[in-house]
C-alpha cells in the first residue's frame, strides 16, 4: 500500500512538473509547426545564414539544418579545415537526434559550425546533413571537398560522408575511442589514460554534446534557441578578445605552446646542412628540419601548425621571429 502511495505521488509530481515546463517553454506539439517561421526569421534577421526545415509527404517533421552567417564565415575564414561531427539522442516527447558539426578555432576551442535535428541516425539522415553542409559551403563559393572529418563510429556516417564528400579524410575521435576502450576492453586507470593521451597526441578533450545535454528533453524550438544563445554568447566573448589583436598577434593557445616548446628546446643542438636544411640533435636522436616548408622529422610542426621544439631551436639559431613560422590560423587576422 505504501509503495502504491509513493507511485501515485511520483506520477502527480511528474504531471505538475510537465505542466510547469509547458507553461515556461511551450508544448511539444506546438513547437514543430513553428519551425518554418523560425527558419525564415533566421534568414531575414541574419543575412547569409542557412536554415532549412524538411517535411515528409504526409507533412510530418523530417529534419532541419541551421548555420548562422557568423558561424560559416568564421569557419571558412579562420579555422583549420577540420570538422568534428557527432549525434546526440533527444529525450523529449518526440525523441529524435541532434546532429552537430564543430571546428577548432585559433585558440584551440570549440567553434560551432552547424547543427540540426533528424528523426533517426541513419545513412539517409547523415546524407541529408552532409548535403546541406556542402550547399552551405557552396553558398559562400567554397568548392573544397577534401575536409578532414572526425567522429566516432556512428551509424551511417562513413557511407553518407563519402557519398557527399568523396575526397574527405576520416579520422576517429580520441574521446570516443578512449571510451570504447574502457567499455569494450575494460582498460582504465590513470596509467592507461596517460599513455592513451600521449599516443593520440590529442589537443582538445571536450565535446560539444556536453553543452546540449541539459536541454535535450526540451521542445525542439526551445532546444534550438538555447543552442543559438550559447553560440552567440561564446562568439561574442571571443570577438571582444580578438578585436584588440593585431593581424600578426598570436592567440593565447599558440603563445602557450611556443613557450613550452621553447623551454623544452634548451638542450637541443643545431647543425646546418645547407640550402635551408638543418639537423637538430636531442640526446642520441637527430631530427631533420627544413625552414622553407616548415617541417620537422618529428611531425609535430606539420601536425599542429606551430613550430616544434626542434624547429624553434633552428629559428632562434638563425635569429628569426617564431611568429613568422606559425600557421595563420593562430593569428589575429584569422
Residue stretches low in confidence (pLDDT < 50, at least 5 long) are none
Tell me the number of helical segments per DSSP (H or I, 4 or more residues long).
Answer: 13
User: For the largest beta sheet, what order do the strands appear in spatially?
Assistant: 1-2-5-4-3-6-7
Radius of gyration (Å): 24 Å
Distance between the termini: 67 Å
Characterize the overall form. globular
Major sheet summary line: 7 strands, mixed
Q: Name the beta content range.
A: 15-25%
**What would you call the structural class?**
alpha+beta
Number of domains: 2
How many E-type strands? Answer: 11
Provide the succession of SSEs.
HHHEEHEEEHEHEHHHHHEEEEHH
Helical fraction: 40-55%
Q: Quick check: average pLDDT? A: 86
Highlighted features:
334 residues, alpha+beta, 2 domains, seven-stranded mixed β-sheet, four-stranded antiparallel β-sheet, 13 helices, 45% helix, 20% strand
Explain how this protein is built.
The structure is a single chain. The protein is α+β, with helices and mostly antiparallel strands and 334 residues long. The protein folds into two domains: 2-172 and 208-242, no CATH class; 252-330, no CATH class. The protein is 45% helix and 20% strand. It is built from 13 helices and eleven strands. The strands form two sheets. Strands 1-2-5-4-3-6-7 form a seven-stranded mixed β-sheet, with helices on both faces. A four-stranded antiparallel β-sheet has the order 8-9-10-11. Helix 5 (123-139) packs parallel to helix 6. It starts with a helix and ends in a 17-residue tail after the last helix.
Amino acid at each position: 500500500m505504501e509503495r502504491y502511495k509513493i507511485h501515485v505521488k511520483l506520477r502527480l509530481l511528474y504531471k505538475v512538473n510537465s505542466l510547469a515546463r509547458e507553461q515556461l517553454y511551450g508544448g511539444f506539439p506546438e513547437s514543430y509547426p513553428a519551425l518554418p517561421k523560425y527558419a525564415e526569421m533566421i534568414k531575414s534577421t541574419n543575412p547569409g545564414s542557412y536554415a532549412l526545415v524538411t517535411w515528409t509527404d504526409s507533412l510530418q517533421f523530417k529534419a532541419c539544418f541551421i548555420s548562422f552567417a557568423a558561424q560559416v564565415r568564421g569557419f571558412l575564414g579562420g579555422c583549420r579545415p577540420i570538422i568534428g561531427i557527432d549525434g546526440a539522442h533527444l529525450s523529449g516527447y518526440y525523441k529524435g537526434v541532434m546532429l552537430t558539426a564543430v571546428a577548432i578555432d585559433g585558440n584551440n576551442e570549440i567553434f560551432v559550425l552547424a547543427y540540426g535535428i533528424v528523426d533517426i541516425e541513419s545513412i539517409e539522415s547523415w546524407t541529408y546533413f552532409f548535403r546541406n553542409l556542402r550547399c552551405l559551403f557552396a553558398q559562400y563559393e567554397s568548392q573544397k571537398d577534401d575536409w578532414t572529418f572526425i567522429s566516432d563510429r556512428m551509424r551511417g556516417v562513413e557511407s553518407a560522408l563519402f557519398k557527399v564528400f568523396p575526397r574527405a579524410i576520416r579520422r576517429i575521435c580520441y574521446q570516443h575511442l578512449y571510451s570504447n576502450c574502457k567499455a569494450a576492453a575494460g582498460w582504465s586507470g590513470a596509467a592507461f589514460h596517460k599513455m592513451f593521451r600521449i599516443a593520440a597526441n590529442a589537443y582538445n578533450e571536450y565535446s560539444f554534446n556536453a553543452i546540449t545535454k541539459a536541454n535535450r528533453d526540451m521542445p525542439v524550438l526551445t532546444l534550438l534557441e538555447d543552442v543559438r544563445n550559447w553560440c552567440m554568447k561564446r562568439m561574442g566573448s571571443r570577438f571582444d578578445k580578438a578585436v584588440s589583436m593585431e593581424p600578426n598577434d598570436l592567440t593565447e593557445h599558440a603563445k602557450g605552446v611556443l613557450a613550452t616548446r621553447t623551454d623544452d628546446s634548451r638542450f637541443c643542438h643545431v647543425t646546418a646542412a645547407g640550402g635551408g636544411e638543418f639537423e637538430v640533435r636531442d640526446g642520441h636522436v637527430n631530427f631533420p628540419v627544413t625552414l622553407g616548408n616548415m617541417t620537422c622529422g618529428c611531425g609535430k610542426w606539420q601536425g599542429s601548425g606551430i613550430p616544434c621544439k626542434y624547429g624553434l631551436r633552428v629559428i632562434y639559431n638563425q635569429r628569426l621571429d617564431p611568429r613568422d613560422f606559425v600557421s595563420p590560423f593562430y593569428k589575429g587576422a584569422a
